[in-house]
Amino acid sequence: MEGWKVGYPDRTAPAHSLMGENSEIVVDLNPQMADNNVRLVGCLTAEGFAGKWQYATLIGVVAEGPFLAVR
């Protein structure tokens, strides 16, 4: 699924990538990187945007944990 590109209009590459499938939202904070990636995977709740963060290298996800983003 092609996602929205979130970034700055004066840059050629997007700063972030935002994708959604079913009720899940994935925010890729380093979309132009093949290594050293941070992603937020979650859904909108009454409290805000909640889910898990993931840190991935070339071997895959090496660390993850819960997060809650509120206004």
Proportion of residues in extended strands: over 45%
> How many domain units?
1
Radius of gyration, CA atoms, in whole angstroms:
13 Å
Tell me the helix content: under 10%
N-to-C CA distance = 28 Å
Order of secondary-structure elements:
EEEEEE
Mean pLDDT: 77
Low-confidence stretches: 1-9
Number of helices: 0
Overall 3D form = elongated
Would you tell me the structural class of the helices and strands? mainly beta
Placed side by side, the strands forming the largest sheet appear as: 1-2-3-4-5-6
Number of strands: 6
Largest sheet: 6 strands, antiparallel
Which properties best describe this structure?
0% helix, elongated, mainly beta, single chain, 71 residues, disordered N terminus
Word description of this protein:
It is a single chain. With 71 residues, this protein is mostly beta strands. The protein has one domain. Helix content is 0%, strand content 58%. The chain is built from no helices and six strands. The chain has strands at residues 4-6, 16-21, 24-28, 37-44, 49-57, 60-69. It has a six-stranded antiparallel beta sheet, with no helix packed on it. The protein is elongated and about 35 Å long. Mean pLDDT is 77; it is low at 1-9.
